[in-house]
Design brief:
Cathepsin B, Chain A, eight-stranded mixed sheet, 27% helix, globular, USP_CS, Papain-like_cys_pep_sf, Ubiquitin carboxyl-terminal hydrolase
Length: 471
Amino acid sequence: MILLKWIGINREASSDTITSQEESLVRSFICSDGDDKLFGFENFGNTCYANSILQTLYYSKPFRDGVIRYPKPISVLLDLPNTESFSNESATHLEKSSFDLSLSFASSSLTSHKSSNISHAHTNGTKLHSTFFDAPFCKKNNFMENAMLLNNIETYKNRRLMGKFNVNIDSSHCSTYGMRESLFTCVRDIFASIIQSHVKNGVCSPTKLIEVLRRENEFFRGNLHQDAHEFLNYLLNVILESIEEHDKLNTDTNDNISINGKSNCSISAKWLHSIFEGILTSEIRCFTCESITSRDESFLDLSIDVNKNTSITSCLNSFFSPEILSGKNKFYCDFCGDLQEAEKCIKIKRLPKILALHLKRFRYIEENGNYTFSKLFHTVVYPYYLRLSNTTHDTNDMDRLYELYAVVVHLGSGPYHGHYVSVIKTESGWTLFDDERVVPVNETFVRRFFGDLPGEATAYVLFYQAVDITL
């Protein structure tokens, strides 16, 4: 998908000579934690679902830090050969667009730029038509007026993939820290390679990750359109399993604890539990004896139904609304010893530090007696800031405020085809990640995926981060 055409940026003929100001910008100090890196991910035909999630997880700072530090921290100051060195020849031929992108972040001023009315996305042989990029949203400044992106975006993409800005991911590191090859080690190698890169912008190819993913889960094999949320859920669970497996194999270290003689979740694995995991409490009150039965269940994200012309707050209220258990759904009460009518309530017992909300836009819809798996284009308004009110009385920090920092967007008319991109709040501001392409956008652009605009782009997974707490 040529997202840069959505912006309508064009490049006038300019000098091939790179100024000292531009070169010093790229040679400038690289943040040790990787916050300042802006890398696209290569698409291997249908892997946009993975790219959009990987980008979001990379900019989930506590997650990235935890991955890099387990089982032992990497040295970000090591001069590893994971990127091309800055020889005079390579510096002369650096892509102007990379400087433009970096320079565009240097200014906080926003000016509008009209995009083309229709953009075409090529995914699995299908062409998606989108009109939701008609409003001004692109960041610009004086530097970009004099040195725009390349005219031919496909040439730009190919030149980057040829190695000018390509990050070479070393997938052999897992043996150095005693772990078997897994999706976790692949993610760790990707993050480490980006952080240790000598350049701030470029493209990396998560070849090994896709190879391991398809080897370990046949669901992700082939060229079919995959689901970004399913990949997120699978990836987080596999990472948890890998960490806990490694801890069990290293019981002689201080990474494990034992309570009352029973093995408990390892200390090292707790960093991931503490980030994404929350706890739901299901309370069922019997109408006959008034007894209350409670059951706790952990979650890594919340999947919520969407209705027409609604908001995230309304969807969450529906998710937590009481349910009457009657008729065929009566509850078996242990105190009464029989099926009874009851009320079921779901509340949050423990709030996660990062709240992932999955909008259930794909649903079986009945039409003329037939059921079809279709996409719902209902308008769902999501705020920049969010509070969850449906909590138990003993919930930790029940007034916790969340801030939106990432949106995974699905473009397409149905669940079996389309394209995924992610819009993420980085150190440099809101940024659009579309596979190999990385484009700065302004804050209003983030709210263009409610589902109320023409086109087929809708928010699919929202990521909120707790405000004013230590992550």
